[in-house]
Structures are given as structure tokens and as C-alpha cells.
Amino acid sequence: MINIVAKITPKAALFDDCKGRLQGILAATRAEPGCHRFELFASKEQRCLFLVEQFESQAALDEHYAQPYTKAVFAFYENALAEPVEVEKVEEL
Q: Which keywords appear in this protein's UniProt record, sorted alphabetically (predicted)?
């Protein structure tokens, strides 16, 4: 199992756009065969977004990254982010 917490920091003017794009891929990602969890959270000050993800395997995660809707979000990130995405692979305790 692969567990990920991703911190996404959009430029302030693009926060709502970024949030909307991520909300737009929630259902499709959750329907992927290897996805066990894909949840979106926002910081209270609406500065950062957090994705909490769980995939069955690296192959399932790679398949997620290969999806057109995921690629579209990554392309949007190229000019929309104030900081690079911080991705942490975590282990359940």
C-alpha cells in the first residue's frame, strides 16, 4: 500500500481554480481500480490544499499519474503554483 500526503500551494489568485480542478478529478480518481483513498482538504486560511491518497501499489499510482485528467491538473500546476508540490509518502503506525 502507498500512502501519500501532498501539499499544494497555489498562487493566491488561483486558489479557487486549483481547488475546483482537484475537486473535478476526485470521483474519477476514486473510481480507479487501485485507489483506496483520495481526499482533498484545505488549510483554514485557504492558502494550501492537501491531498490524502492511498493506492494499492506503485503500478496503481503510476496508472493514476498517466490518466488524462491527472496530466491536465499537473499541466495547470506549471503556472499556478506559488511553491512546488510537497509530496510525502507516509506509513501507517
A: Monooxygenase, Oxidoreductase
